[in-house]
Automatic annotation (TrEMBL):
Domain Helix-turn-helix, residue spans: 7-57
Keyword DNA-binding: yes
InterPro entries cross-referenced by the UniProt entry: DNA-bd_dom_put_sf, HTH_17, WH-like_DNA-bd_sf
GO MF, one example: DNA binding
UniProt keyword DNA-binding present: yes
Keywords: DNA-binding
Source taxon at top rank: Bacteria
Name of the molecule in the record: DNA-binding protein
Native source organism of the sequence: Lysobacter niastensis
């Protein structure tokens, strides 16, 4: 099982992504942005899953630039 230290709160993730916490709340409502889990009513972000999501975003941007 993963240790709790691998998970970030919305505020911590917003800080890491240089975004406002409200942006992550909006992304969750829109089902976009980094993957999250809800544990005991608390939203948490797995840092490893977020790193993979960020890599996927870079690949998508590169593909768009190549196609354009």
């Amino acid at each position: 099982m993963k240790q709790a230290s691998q998970y970030l709160t919305t505020a911590q993730m917003a800080d890491a992504l240089h975004r406002a916490p409200e942006t992550l709340v909006r992304w969750r409502r829109q089902r976009i942005g980094p993957p999250w889990i809800t544990l005991h009513g608390r939203v948490l972000y797995d840092s490893a899953a977020t790193a993979r999501w960020m890599e996927q975003q870079q690949v998508a941007l590169i593909r768009e630039a190549a196609a354009g």
